[in-house]
Amino acid sequence: MSFFADKQTLNDLNIPGRHKNNSISRLFDEVITAGGRKLMDEMFQYPLTDYDAINKRSSIFKYFTGNNIQFPFTQAEFGIMENYLASGSNSNRLAVGIGVISKKVMQIAAQDTAYQLLNDDVCQTIALLNRFSAFAATLPVEESQYKQQIENVKTIFNNKDLIWLKQETGIANLTLLKIVKYDHLLRTRLHEQMNQLLELLFQLDVYIAVANVASRMGFCYATALPKHSNTLSVSRLFHPTVRNAIGNSLSMDESRNVIFLTGANMAGKSTLMKAFGISLYLAHMGFPVAADEMTFSVKDGLFSSINVSDNLEMGYSHFYAEVMRVKTVAEQVAADKDLIVIFDELFKGTNVKDAYDATLSITEAFSNNRNCFFIISTHIVEVGEALRERCQNFRFTYLPTVMEGSVPRYTYRLTEGITADRHGMMIIENEGILEIIRGTTSETK
């Protein structure tokens, strides 16, 4: 079973879509091979819930991050080898020979290019295989999770049917007999071994791409713990696609499984919550996270309610869409799943009185599920004051606003407590909106 996040959550956190601006998938999209891109997509679609598997994968990424290793092929030259090896058949050597001879005859009789193209493909593949063999020999041999993959590569190249490979280094043209022999070996007799090499190369492509992003962006690798540990600790967490982002530290466990977040508009609440969700999703993939340090116990899934909108097709108002979203999460929590839940301003689609009552009752009810972690934000600070009197498992935090005259400045640094900051009207006044409506701006005078 893989770590679960539904479509709403993935879109809230802007995780899928390598072609989407600032998506998390796009951030890591530095792979070179088509097979590597497919493997990367699978990793994003199916995060892990086995802490040992997570740690094994992240240790491989860490190995490549620490050793500054570059992928040994360009996209164009790898594509030639990939296409050639992927077109293997079950033909015996005689059938291969007849096919090659036919191409040679057509070259002589009709200046057909098929024979020369086959020669070029075989020579290019030989050159790249030799390069990969030499590359594998240079990889640091140390106690790491990637050690077995290195051994697998060396085992394939030590196959007695590939002894000839190094003897053909730098060759540009082969005799007809050698083309028949090598083509049969590479695409038929050793077809399974070549597929194994391609898979190892796809993995290598992903490992190097992710490691390069981690190194360039200053990300760390999280340590996964068993589910029963029920803990989370992250230092200097920041949003991976926000320039010069401010880092914040968070911690949660069974005794403090709810973070209640307040703060004025533009103070950074939504960005912090998205950063939190993204870090948990990437951590369950074994990918690097935007933080200095992170330790977490594995969970079953992640749900968020950040950008819930009305649904005209279903006839849902904004408020009813919010209610249905909370119901969906409640059903998952009631199913005794260990979840991470992010609610950004619950019930903002209704009046303040209903929003207060609903936020208070729903938040308190959710918090009793100590196997789940919640981060909940609201502008209704009175809810926080009521919860502080009734619940002992909350951590109350806020993102402050510093007033410089009539201009608000935001520190984006998480602070303990509950804030009553409200500067909506001040921002409206600073923008001169009322003057525009009244027609009293300087431009109209």
Automatic annotation (TrEMBL):
Q: Per its UniProt record, what InterPro entries does this chain match?
A: DNA_mismatch_repair_MutS_C, DNA_mismatch_repair_MutS_sf, MutS, P-loop_NTPase
Show where the DNA mismatch repair proteins mutS family domain sits.
256-445
Where does the source fall among the domains of life?
Bacteria
- Listed GO MF terms: ATP binding; ATP-dependent DNA damage sensor activity; mismatched DNA binding
Statement: the UniProt record of this protein carries the keyword ATP-binding:
yes
Gene Ontology CC terms, in alphabetical order: cytosol
The secretion signal range is: none
Q: Does the keyword Signal apply?
A: no
Keywords attached to this entry = ATP-binding, DNA-binding, Nucleotide-binding
- Record-level GO BP terms: mismatch repair
Instruction: Please report the name of this protein according to its UniProt entry.
Output: DNA mismatch repair proteins mutS family domain-containing protein
Write down the species. Mucilaginibacter galii
